[in-house]
Amino acid sequence: MRSPELTQLANAFTWLGYGTFLLFAIPIGYWGWNKHSFFRLLLLIGISAWLNALFKDIFQDPRPPLALRLDDRVGASYGLPSGHAQLAVVLWLGLAYEVRRLWLTLLCTLICLGVCLSRLYLAAHDVEDVLVGALLGGATLLIFARLRGLAWWPEAHVGWHVLSIVLVGAASLALWPGEAPDYVPLFVGLLVGAVVGWRVEKRLLDFSAGVVLWRRVLAAVLGALGFILLQKLLKVLELQLGLQPMAWQVLRGVLMGLFVTLAMPWLLVRMRVLVTRTACAPRGEAVAAE
User: Where do the domains of the chain lie?
Assistant: First the structure.
């Protein structure tokens, strides 16, 4: 079934499940589309990536033979469950659940299927890897949908949120079967930084892109450029600090979370690209449905 054209298509779909895309797509949606929806997706992606790494190291199920594989970016990681399938379900079907528009639901479903099938085509995963990953992603969304109705937890003091993330993260790293991948402490720090930044921003700014298209596009472009600059600065900071790898990944995650939910929104508000909720209401610029 393989052909040069299908291989290009499969690589395009599979790129939508890699961290490079996810780390750009979520913040861009946060700044330029709907911060509430994409904040929830950020939390779901962080938790799902965390769980996926844990299950991979528990099951230690090998991937298909190297002779068949067309994706050389997976390294020596295990195959079960498929992270692409799990995160594709969480991101794309989660986005469809948040927006609830028929055209977007169809598009997100198509992308989700494309990502899952691309992992089989590229021989990065077996069928059971993809099925288990998709089921775990679906279970995550179902649990989230049930917990979303618990109003007391989102309104709880931010200290409880941070403490919960730190305790669960520390316990999982201490009990990890072997050595945890470096992106696990990264996501622990990212969740902490994002939660703290979210609560501070909501109290100080409570920004909105409004409904004006140019604000949304400009916020996304400037935010993406800022995110690229942040990554370069973090590389310099890593060399200067010389921390242990795990400690650095936690700190890096915290700084990234604070940048996405607090620092960049503050900068965009100061540049008058984004506006605060109180500032946009008197001008009749309706806040986007959130």
Answer: 1-149, 151-290
